[in-house]
Amino acid sequence: MNPVVLLVDDAPQSLGALAAELEAEGYTVLVAHDGAAALARLDWVTPDAILLDALMPGLDGFETCRRIKAQPAWAHIPVIFMTGLAETAHIVAGFAAGGVDYVVKPARAPEVLARLATHVRNARAVRLAREAADLGGLGVLVVDAQRRVAWRSPQAQRWIEGFFGAAGEAACLDWLGGEERVAADGRALLARPLGDIGLGETMWLLSLRTAGEAAPSRLASAALTPRETEVLSWIAKGKTNRDVADILGMSPRTVNKHLEHVFEKLGVETRAAAAALASRELGV
Q1: Residues 84-98: b if buried by 16+ CB within 10 A, e if exposed
Q2: CB 224 within 8 A of CB 262
Q3: According to the model, what pLDDT value does residue 154 have?
Q4: pLDDT below 50 — which residues of the chain?
Q5: What is the CATH architecture assignment of 137-210?
Q6: What distance in Å separates the CA atoms of residue 171 and residue 164, rounded to the nearest whole number?
Q7: Quick one: pLDDT at residue 193?
Q8: What is the pLDDT of residues 116-166, one digit of tens each?
Q9: Hey, is 214 helix, strand or coil?
Q10: How does DSSP classify residue 86?
């Protein structure tokens, strides 16, 4: 199935050559003349990317982008601004509104195609990962650098509504990293950081247990692979990466890659913190 691109511009004829280039590259191109029309299109079809002009009569591109990003069903769509506004303040405004890229007109088709291909590929990979989280019933929450919810799985949304009621996401964000949140029925909600995922975003894993029940160890809940556990245990014993590489028959570079995954899964940033946690829970 061809990827779908929505072109939003109040003078679409000026983008005729670009539309032709996109179609030649295998994209299905849809056109909207203003922000309101773009939002109406999204009620019928979800494109793989949106090329959006910033200055349009009525609903401008910045506000259109903000409205798109405010809808969970559309928030994953990469929005690339294409406009003649080249001042730093305008570029910053585009990213603040939720855009992933900014192309200054007159747009050069090869550049737009290269940027578009990258964003479409990345967005599809993220969407597949998020769909896997949805299907697995995982309570996953992504918080951006401005301490806003960038994405949440359906299970996370249900738990947020159940535990925080009308206060919703704002109360949940204030609670993240705190003690378990206990409901009237005795269930307790916990949140564990899974580490940074880029662009200042942090992923959290929400889980339920009976209030007062002993929390699983961080190692047990981190889901380390057997090899990652081996590497961590040797690090906790004071071995260097080269030592561990010799013991386990791998390169120091591979050891370092395993440690990066361990740090992310444990929610720690340093070798010393990971070693201390392993020493405490593994007894090494």
Answers
A1: ebeeeebbebbeebb
A2: yes
A3: 82
A4: none
A5: 2-Layer Sandwich (3.30)
A6: 7
A7: 81
A8: 888 888 887 777 666 666 656 678 888 887 788 877 888 888 899 889 988
A9: coil
A10: -
Annotated domain spans of the chain = 4-133, 137-210, 218-282
Q: Which residue is it, tokens 């370092």?
A: 256
- Dihedral sign, Cα of residue 268, residue 270, residue 272, residue 278: positive
Bond from prior residue into 154 cis (ω within 30 degrees of 0): no
Between 3.40.50.300, 3.40.50.2300, 2.60.120.260, 2.130.10.10, what CATH number should domain 4-133 receive? 3.40.50.2300
Comparing C-alpha atoms, which of 205, 200, 231, 227 is closest to residue 218? 205
Query: Sign of the C-alpha dihedral, residues 16, 31, 53, 57?
Result: positive
Q: State how beta strands 201-210 and 139-143 pair.
A: antiparallel
**Of 89, 82, 87, nearest to 8 (Cα)?**
82
Region at 144 (left for phi over 0; alpha for psi -120 to 50; beta for the rest): beta
Check: CB of residue 160 under 8 Å from CB of residue 169: yes
